[in-house]
Design goal:
The protein is built from 18 helices and six strands. It has 426 residues and is mainly alpha-helical. The protein has three domains: 39 residues, no CATH class; 170 residues, Citrate Synthase, domain 1; 106 residues, Cytochrome p450-Terp, domain 2. Strand 5 and strand 6 form a beta hairpin. Helix 4 packs across helix 7, helix 6 runs antiparallel to helix 11 and helix 10 crosses helix 18. The longest helix has 27 residues. It is globular. The N and C termini lie far apart (64 Å). The protein binds carboxymethyl coenzyme *A. The site of carboxymethyl coenzyme *A has 21 residues, from helix 17.
């Protein structure tokens, strides 16, 4: 049945709402003129069922566990592409040819140095500064070092700069947090390899890059590269909608990602698994706590706003996990706890009835641990992966002829008008 319009009855009067249908058949009811015509707004806490834009970048079907970047399934991309190809795909809209990829990779490598003066910022941070705080503030300060304007050539250069430099900033933030000398980027290494080198090389020793760890990191970056209108991406679009520059918008996205309900969940998962281990491995106790609403405790790495069947990213990680951990020869007691927790939750009525499945963060932290990435860098890794998605969404928002500044409405529930009683009389 064609669904080209919908009717709303309010106060006995009928109003027609236009319908927009997406390329995968998703239906959106247009409510733009609802307030002008009826005085009403829609109310949707957490925007759980509100479309904020039309987008041609990522398609997710949460019920069927489908996720595609520009039409390509995440499973296919993980098997046949490398992270820079996925960056190109998201940012420019199509997979690159061999020449396009060569030029892109050349640009990504040759813009990876940061201005020498910016090193002074790192020095100003206290010892053990959390790398996510450093990442967001230094990303914002890039706009003080590189011109930002509407010139298309400058804008494209800034996109390359940001993609190239954020990994250097991330690695420097880590070196700062452990008090080691910064290691400069190397142009002969892959994107993932260069990052690992900057993280783990020390001036006094040769650093040997492990190809398995390099490829695993590349895979994790691809898995995180975009996820349509999640909290941080919507933040990037919202900040950018005021005409704030790319660097400021991405910095805001990094801050949004840092929370433990979003990108910070991979850290929270490891903390939770450690807590269970230190508490004698009593998994049942923590399952019961997660079900008890008064406890304020949730099973970290479980549940998702969109995925109500399975998180396809979690599936890719899970199948890579066993193979990679055995090839790396890793034995992690937290892995056994994670597996048992997952098994128990998937058989528990509370989790089954609410469709709470392991999400991408349930296993990503365990993989990062096996690769030697320290816990305080997990969310930074998520940010590096998500960067091309944020940039693609920012560009799409800028180029949308219907773009307007983001400005939601509210239903006011406060006091009615009242006079100010002078201080002496209160
Ligand atoms: N443990 C226990 N109960 C949960 C959990 C959980 N992890 N997640 C949701 N619930 C319950 C929740 O209490 C509610 O129960 P009831 O209907 O009885 O009130 C029901 O499930 C629905 O939860 P919700 O809070 O309305 O769901 P949401 O869509 O607002 O939140 C979420 C999604 C991911 C924030 C949430 O599931 C959560 O807090 N999970 C743990 C944190 C986490 O792993 N976050 C990473 C998400 S994936 C990475 C990313 O894309 O950012």
């Amino acid at each position: 049945m064609a669904m080209d319009s919908a009717k709303l009855i309010l106060g006995g009067k009928e109003f027609e709402l236009p319908v927009t249908t997406g390329s995968e058949g998703e239906i959106g009811l247009g409510i733009k003129s609802l307030r002008a015509e009826t005085g009403a707004i829609t109310l949707d806490s957490g925007y759980a069922n509100t479309g904020s834009c039309e987008s041609a970048i990522t398609f997710i079907d949460g019920e069927k566990g489908i996720m595609r970047y520009r039409g390509y399934s995440i499973e296919d991309l993980c098997e046949h592409a490398i992270f820079p190809e996925v960056c190109y795909l998201l940012v420019f809209g199509s997979l690159p040819s061999t020449e396009e990829l060569e030029t892109f990779v050349h640009d990504l490598t040759h813009h990876s140095l940061i201005h020498e003066d910016m090193k002074k910022f790192f020095e100003g941070y206290p010892p053990n500064a959390p790398p996510m705080s450093v990442l967001s503030t230094i990303a914002a300060s890039l706009s003080a070092y590189y011109p930002v304007n509407d010139d298309p050539a400058i804008s494209e250069l800034n996109i390359i700069r940001l993609l190239a430099k954020l990994k250097t900033i991330a690695a420097f933030a880590y070196k700062k947090s452990i008090g080691q000398a910064y290691v400069y980027p190397r142009n002969d290494l892959s994107y993932a390899g260069d990052f690992l080198h900057m993280m783990f090389a020390v001036p006094s020793e040769d650093y040997e890059l492990d190809p398995l760890i390099e490829r695993t990191l590349d895979l994790l970056l691809i898995l995180h590269a975009d996820h349509e209108q999640n909290c941080s991406t919507a933040t990037v679009r919202m900040v950018g909608s005021s005409d704030a520059n790319l660097f400021s918008s991405i910095s805001a996205g990094i801050s949004a990602l840092s929370g433990h309900l979003h990108g910070g969940a991979n850290v929270a998962v490891i903390k939770m698994l450690n807590m269970i281990r230190e508490d004698g491995g009593n998994i049942r106790k923590y399952m019961e706590m997660a079900k008890d609403k008064s406890s304020n405790f949730r099973l970290m790495g479980f549940g998702h706003r969109v995925y109500k069947n399975f998180d396809p990213r979690a599936n890719v990680i899970k199948s890579a996990n066993d193979r990679i951990l055995s090839e790396l020869g890793t034995e992690d007691p937290l892995l056994d706890i994670a597996k048992e927790l997952e098994r128990m939750a998937l058989e528990d009525e509370y989790f089954v009835s609410r469709k709470l499945y392991p999400n991408v963060d349930f296993y990503s932290g365990l993989l990062y641990r096996a690769m030697g990435i320290p816990t305080n860098m997990f969310t930074v890794m998520f940010a590096l992966g998500r960067l091309p998605g944020w940039i693609a969404q920012w560009i799409e928002m800028k180029n949308d002829p219907r773009k307007r500044i983001y400005r939601p409405r509210q239903i006011y529930t406060g006091s009615l008008s009242r006079p100010v009683v002078p201080l002496a009389d209160r």
